Amino acid sequence: MKYFILVLLCVPSMVVSQILTVIDGASIAIENTASISLDGLTIAPSDSYVITGANTVSVTNNPVEVNENSSVNRVYELSTALSDFSGTLVFAYAEDELNGIAESDLVLETLSTDGVWNSYEADVDDANNTLSYDFTNLEFTKITASSVNASLTVEEIAKNDFVKVYPNPTTDKLIIVSKNIKNSILYNINGQKVLETDRNELNVSQLPIGVYLLHTSNNQNQLSTFKIIKK
Q: What does the pLDDT average to over 59-80?
């Protein structure tokens, strides 16, 4: 197996710097006893992990802005999503990149392939200027940091003509609002039923982080499906 790594020094005056390139047909294997550091982003898998080509990792000093919320001035982007990653990601930052965010308020933010920002309350090491978090089966195309008080995550309310579901994303429960709800079933991405209720609330706190499908029906046998993100 061939391994290719191209690491370029990040020049402060550059807006975007390419820090890793894996050419098509090549790959990088990271053993579970090792890690790889990409200009401040450290990837340390809990099991052996392979980054396959073609993929590039770039870093920019342009913050991400969602509504009125903004990230720090350091954003990593992958041309191909890193998927099914379990292990620790360590995000290093400089104090002049924080955009006025207090270090104690920093959270990690990852962008999924469906365009949703997910927020994680990471361990903050203000002595070494790092954020770290242990992930399970993570998939992401971008990673940055923002404030816990101004997260990039947008809690949109899923709704249709007769039912709405919130909050989404959620960490502990789903509220199902309908005047005549009959049944609600939550499935994982493999199509397996994980929860079912005839009430207006689902407790999802014990479910793994990931994407689920919620099927609801009412007394008129109207059916609806919602994509639910468990954080």
A: 92
12: alpha, beta or left? (left if phi > 0; alpha if psi -120 to 50) = alpha
Are 183 and 140 in the same domain?
no
pTM above 0.70, yes or no: no
Domains: count for the chain: 2
pLDDT: is 185 or 160 the higher one? 185
CATH code of 25's domain? 2.60.220
Average pLDDT, the chain: 86
Q: Flag whether pLDDT at 10 surpasses 50.
A: no
Specify whether 122 is located in the same domain as 51.
yes
Q: How far is CA 208 from CA 65, 150, 215, 228, in A?
A: 28, 25, 19, 12
Residue pLDDT, tens place only, 80-112: 999 999 999 999 999 999 999 999 999 999 988
What tokens were used for 44?
A: 């340390």
Write down which residue in 147, 167, 191 finishes a domain. 147
